[in-house]
From TrEMBL:
<dbReference type="InterPro" id="IPR003778">
    <property type="entry name" value="CT_A_B"/>
</dbReference>
<keyword id="KW-0067">ATP-binding</keyword>
<feature type="domain" description="Carboxyltransferase">
    <location>
        <begin position="29"/>
        <end position="309"/>
    </location>
</feature>
<dbReference type="InterPro" id="IPR052708">
    <property type="entry name" value="PxpC"/>
</dbReference>
<dbReference type="Pfam" id="PF02626">
    <property type="entry name" value="CT_A_B"/>
</dbReference>
<protein>
    <submittedName>
        <fullName>Biotin-dependent carboxylase uncharacterized domain-containing protein</fullName>
    </submittedName>
</protein>
<keyword id="KW-0378">Hydrolase</keyword>
<dbReference type="InterPro" id="IPR029000">
    <property type="entry name" value="Cyclophilin-like_dom_sf"/>
</dbReference>
<dbReference type="GO" id="GO:0016787">
    <property type="term" value="F:hydrolase activity"/>
</dbReference>
<keyword id="KW-0547">Nucleotide-binding</keyword>
<dbReference type="GO" id="GO:0005524">
    <property type="term" value="F:ATP binding"/>
</dbReference>
Amino acid sequence: MTHSVNGLSVTRAGPLALLQDAGRFGVRRLGVTQGGPLDLHGWAWANHLAGNAWGTPALEVTFGGLELVAECDLVLAVAGADLSMTLDDEPLAGWQSLSVKVGQRIAFDAPVNGLRAYLAVAGGFSAEPVLGSVACVAREGLGGHDGQGHRLAKGDCLKVTPRKASTGNEAPREEQYDYCQSVDLALLPGAQIGEFSGVSLFQAFNAPWHVDDRADRMGVRLTGPRLHCRMNSMISEGIGLGAVQVPPDGQPIALLNDRQTIGGYPRLGALTPLACSRLAQCLPGQEVRLKAVSTEQALAAYRGFRAGFA
C-alpha cells in the first residue's frame, strides 16, 4: 500500500492557490456547490501528462506569486496559463512533465498568457475528502489541502502519494492554447431566451463582449450592449455550470464552479464546460463573443474532449 508523504512545502503563497479534483457532485440539494477546476482543459492535461487518472487532485494557481520547495523526488506536470514559471530560477516550460529533486524550488510569478496554471504530481496530491471530494470551495469552508476550504498559505505542506512516472511527456501543440486570442464561447440557449427582445438577441450573439474586472471563481461579468428582457421577475431555480444570467442592468454574468446553487435572474442559456474553461483563462478587458450551439454540438465536443483522457 502506498502512503502519503510530505511533497511540496509553501515558501511563498501568492494570492490564490487551491487544491482541486474534478468537483463535488450530488450535494446541490444541500446548497453546496461543485467547486473543481475553473479550467477543466488545463487541469485535465496537467493530470494526463503526469500519468494520473481523471479526477486526481491537482493544484490550481491563479495569478502566480506561489513558490514551492520539493520535500522529496517527484514527477510533476504543469499545464494551463503561463505564469512565468521557474525551476531553481531557470525558466520552466508548461504543457509537459518533468522530474524534480528534493530541495528544488518551483515558482509561479506573473501572468504572461492566461490566468490559471495547473500543477499535477505523479500519483496525486493527498487530502481528506469532504462530502466525497477534496475540491476547495473557500466560501463554504470545504475541501482543499486541509479540509477547511483554505487557500495555500506560507508554511503549509502538501501531502502527495508519489509514484514513478515517465518524464518528457508534452501536450500536442494544438492543445497548448494561446489565451490572449479573442475567442468564441459556445452557449446553449436556455428556457428564458425567448423573453429577450429581438435587438438584444442580435446584439448578444453578434456584438463583442469584454471580460470585466469583477470576476472570481463564482462567475465572470461581461460588459457590452445592454440586454433587455421582458420578464420583471421569476421564481428562483437551480443554477448549472456556465449559466449566463442577465440582471436588471443588462450585463450578463457567466456563473462558474463556485456559483450559488439557485438564482432568480433570467438566463440567455449556459456556456458549455469547455467554454467555461476558456473564459476562466481570460484577463480583464479581453474580448469574447457568444456563439449559440445545439445540444448535439455541445455533447460531441465534450465527448471528444473526454475521450482523450479515458
